[in-house]
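Appendix B. Worked example

We walk through a single record from start to finish. Start with the input: the chain for Dipeptidase PepE, Photobacterium leiognathi, length 245.
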Amino acid sequence: MDILLLSNGKIAGNTHVMEFAGDVIVEQVKRTGAKHFLVIPYAVIRSSHDDRVAMIQATFDRLGLDCVATGIHQAADPVKAIEQAEGIIVSGGNTWVLNKKLHDLGLVGPLRKAVLAKGVPYIGWSAGTNIACPTIRTTNDMPIVTSAVLTSLNFVPFQINPHYLEASVEGHMGETRDERIQEFLEVNQHEPVMGIPEGTWLQLLDGQLSYHTANGKPLKLFRYGEEPVYFEAEQDIQFMMEISC
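Next comes the structure step. The output line below is what the pipeline stores for this chain.
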């Protein structure tokens, strides 16, 4: 496995998507030799799929990578496109729309086979990170589609909350992000949630899980009946791959 799960697409000062994780993306490309990346932009709602592919191509160019980005939405046979992909990138957007589309097109199995069995490198951010969990129940997105499907790719055995924000907004009387996650744990007591803030990512390489950050922010791990625990980038989080939900 060679998986990068980014919290988000951009941080302050970035002009290109995934730029804050540019070094690790370059390392992944060099390590795997992947040149042709299949982009899955189904989560994109407020702009075109073609524009999102072009944004990713611009990032490759910015990083000096001789890589080509192609959108799965342009493929006559999406399953075959996954089978032939040298690398896979799943864009952020609306997780519910993305996950439903993957199930509707029968792409969950092919994606799991490509990434888990064949070792095809995978990069996801936001929605693309949410779908790497067993389910998408810890997304921040609204379920704007009907017949929404919860189960997803299950690359990691725990839930992730991308864009995690530890804050109380003045004048806002609704629940904080922490309170929403605690609600999840009350109902799903054996399913820990990892909150990863903006500018951070998880790397899963050959079964080894590690946390990385471009801005020094720690991840926050939530487990039922316990106080949340912070983990810095240099700390060991491999135990999260051994949990059983």
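Two observations about the output. DSSP finds seven helices and eleven strands in the chain. The radius of gyration is 17 Å.
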